[in-house]
Design a protein that fits this description.
The chain is α/β, with parallel strands linked by helices. It has helices at 9-20, 22-35, 43-55, 118-139, 158-164, 217-231, 270-291, 310-323, 330-342, 370-374, 396-401, 405-427, 429-443, 468-486; strands at 59-63, 72-78, 82-87, 143-149, 173-180, 184-185, 192-201, 240-247, 258-267, 294-303, 379-385. Helix 4 (118-139) runs parallel beside helix 12. The longest helix is centred in the C-terminal third of the chain and has 23 residues, at 405-427. The radius of gyration is 24 Å and the shape is globular. The structure holds zinc ion. Zinc ion (ZN) binds at residues 116, 118, 153, 178.
Amino acid sequence: MSVTTKASDAVLEVQANVEAVQSTLVEVADKIWKLAELSLEEEESSGLFIDTLKEHGFTIDSVGTSNIPTAFAASYGSGGPVVGVMTEYDALPGLGNEPVAEKTPRKDGKTTGHGCGHNLIGAGGLGAAIALKEWMEKNNIPGTLRVFGAAAEEAEGAKIYMARDGVFDNLDACLHWHPLSVTTPWHAKCAAVNMLLIDFNGKTAHAGAVPWEGRSALHAAELFAHGIALMREHLHPTARTHYIYTDGGLAPNVVIEHAQIKLFIRDVNRPLVEATTEWVKQMAKGAAMATQTESKALVFCGMHDLLPNKPLADRIYEHAVQIGLPEYTEEEQAFAKKCQEATGAKPTGMSDKIIPPFDEPPALGGSTDVGEVSYMAPTMGMLVQTCPAGNNVHTWQATALHGMSIGHKAMIMAAKTLASLGVDLFTDPELLAAAQADFKQRKGDYVFKTPLDPEMKRPMGLDGIDHKLHEGHDQHLKQLAQDSAKA
Ligand SMILES: [Zn+2]
């Protein structure tokens, strides 16, 4: 593959547009980093994105999208092509750290942290969206730019509900990015997954005096779990089944009335995951029958595998090469090396390499709710290094790196890369056609079907969140929606 490093005027224009709002983007990234709000609780974070998008001339199309109070959708322009940009902004528990290269709890006592860098994902997506909108407006570019506030990626991702509800329908392509320890197009597959809660209900009794009067739900759960272990031998080598006991009773001298297992089923595609899910449901029934208890299996969350897209991966790689990796100061390299030393890795500092997309995309074992979007339209992401080799996301080092200049620089590079590919998607029908053809070929005759059980109206995690907490936020969002409807 030949790589041109000469950018068109339009591409240079959007890159300059990113630079023009750089200070705003860094400010947003740092605010979100400090807030470090957990999945489904990102009230102030989503509010900040909505406010900033409004200030920059976007229409807020929906707030509390798909029954998720912290999700939103915004847009600019009209007609086709329709190009989407995704943002995320949730933090992780237990990863709070000061933005310093040693394990240091936050002085304000906050224990949550942006160890996955979703503060940067949000700000980078915002930067790409603003840069593209400014360019579209100035040059009368036809088309619609859509921005998605994809809340709760770390938990029951909003994209799953948004995809089910048709929020991503009519997209021609969608863009996203993620911090990591390498810089490369996200030309990789992820695993499809179903997440199940298996409940067993038995009959309580005094375990010492009259155990024959009881029926143990825990015994049903144990039999079920043993069945899962025996089943593994007969699954495809690509399948994964991993579980925890979320309830196994409270006291040994009480026959256990309720037991619960949380189980993840992963494989390379939905049909394989669904086939295993059916088997698992039968096994739950069998375990209940054998123990004279009752079972219920609920798919409370699930995701599609991620469809890669070679034409978009090749093009975003060209842009990444033209933009180039950030230059790091001596202090920044020293910071990165100290983070590496803290995990026993070789202190090599930040990398100077951008890795080209593989011809054959590798299959990763993890899952992402971006998978849902990748079945709606050609979807491409950029991975940009925020961590040095040997460190990775979901660590305190990553939280620290995502709250200082190394993270900021990655976020700016990502914003430029996404905006540049966005220009192509709006102006290069050949690229869009090639991306669509690749998408159709990978999707084949599969018809999208949400993994969610029909009884799932909204993420289960919302039930655990005090709704009083949301009232002020909901009011704020309603006001914004009214204002933008008037505008
Ligand atoms: Zn993440």
